Amino acid sequence: MFERPQGGERALLVQLALPGIDADEALLEFEELALSANAEVLDCVVGTRATPDAKYYMGKGKAEEVNQLVKALDVELVLINHELSPSQERNLERLFQCRVVDRSGLILDIFAQRARTFEGKLQVELAQLHHLSTRLIRGWTHLERQKGGIGLRGPGETQLETDRRLLRERIKSINKRLEKVRSSREQNRQSRRKAALFTVSLVGYTNAGKSTLFNALTGEHIYVADQLFATLDPTMRKLDLPGSSGVILADTVGFIRDLPHHLVEAFRATLEETQQADLLLHVIDISDPNWRDMVFAVEKVLNELGVTDVPVIQVFNKIDLQEGWQPKIDCHSDSCKVWLSAASGAGLELLKETIAAQLHGAIFIEDIIVKNTEAKLRAQLYQLGSVLRETITKAGDWQLKIRITAAQKELLFR
What we know:
Order of helices and strands: EHEHEHEHHHEHEEHHEHEEEHEHEEH
Radius of gyration: 27 Å
Shape: elongated
């Protein structure tokens, strides 16, 4: 459909050090993205500019340097860790005579590979169409009515106009389908509210260990890999908590620096689970030396989504990779932090207790006597999973050791 060079996997990476950008750190992450897209990274080119160039984004000299490497290494794909305008992308492809993909295009390609559910595929296609709509040029030139010549003139629309119209219609169709998904999710949320089930959503930088933590907490076996964006489609399961009837735990797509806006918009149906959650677990890879920057990037995306008033527990994961670190909790009036290892399971019970305390209030462990005429109360305690131990007294009553939250205690013993 488009007169562009064919893509391939033999890739050359380009990173410019612009003001406010740590080029080395950005390049390392970009290389991880490229490997996640199954690219074969042949070499990396770095440069420095005060401002992007209007024609090539990089300077003319740097563009020539990249061009020489493309020819010498037989490069099939040039990946540039910046947002390129359509004209910059075209100019570079003309110069290099190979495919050029910017940061947004690379992330979209990874998402297209990882989408498994019908909803996920729709969301990826929507983001791709928005990205493609600005690049609809030079396509089908043999059908252009303006080309002239006998047998080539006509009053109909140009192929470019046809392409744009078809794109608009497809985008409209996908938005309608996703609106049905949003409506279905809202109905599910209303059902959970009626059943008094809280929703806890996992958020965090990509590859922070959210899916590993999800599996460890729920006993599931969803896909886990040491790569960026291993999880794309959201998964929801019930999580039993101490002294609680349980909550719904949602595993969501990871965030990344400079996440393309149209990608956030396309995944609005999925990200609504984060917006509508009762509690967020912000999973942080404490073994990464740049974890503070990652926290900032996640908080920036959450602000863009309007998620500012949902309580957050910061979960510092991968303490098993830090020598001498032990699980612990640090909760104050304005913040709550838990240190654990999702891989080894250390600290998971601390996290469960913290979630229960955040949602239901403080947790109490008490010994109580339940009269043999109060069988309903005993049944309710068992239903909540609050009973730790039970014995029978001489009078035939039940002596129970229970773990119960403040909210449940007020409800059952008022």
